[in-house]
Write a structure and sequence with these properties.
alpha+beta; five-stranded antiparallel β-sheet; globular; binds adenosine-3',5'-cyclic-monophosphate
Length: 133
């Protein structure tokens, strides 16, 4: 078993899609082992996306991530990180494969409904960011 982090973003919480997304994850054999609902501060959003420091989209991304509720959760299954990237789909919903979460409900490259960790190393860091006790 391995673990990864998914965040439901403000464009999805404002459309009341939390249950829909969790249902899709559970049907894909993920167990939700930790979950919370919160509003990110600008500082928290900037720290979370520090890897994108210097990128032209960072300021807009940070602003968007603080516009509403987010739902970070820890998901567990075999091959959790890679399987979740497949289920979530490409960053830009117009490039996402049919049947992926972003194809289905993503609005655009920024408001793409969910974030998923891109490696085991980053999953561990991102899980600690939200759930370190
Ligand atoms: P996420 O998986 O959360 O990781 C970084 C986020 O930056 C990405 O999803 C998008 O929401 C956002 N973003 C906005 N513009 C871009 C871009 N041009 N390239 C990559 N990510 C972008």
């Amino acid at each position: 078993m391995s673990r990864t982090l998914l965040i439901i973003k403000p464009d999805a919480t404002e459309r009341d899609m939390v249950g829909h997304i969790v249902s899709r994850l559970e049907k894909a054999r993920y167990s939700v082992v930790e979950m919370r609902m919160m509003n990110l501060t600008t500082e928290q959003a900037r720290e979370f996306y520090a890897v994108h420091e210097g990128k032209p989209f960072l300021d807009d991304l940070v602003a968007f991530m603080t516009t509403g509720r987010v739902v970070p959760m820890v998901l567990e299954k075999e091959n959790a990180v890679l399987d979740l990237r497949t289920l979530v789909g490409a960053t830009n919903p117009v490039n996402a494969d049919c049947g992926t979460i972003r194809y289905e409900i993503g609005r655009n490259i920024e408001k793409n409904s969910v974030h998923a960790s891109d490696s085991d190393e980053n999953a561990a860091k991102e899980i600690a960011f939200f759930f370190d006790k």
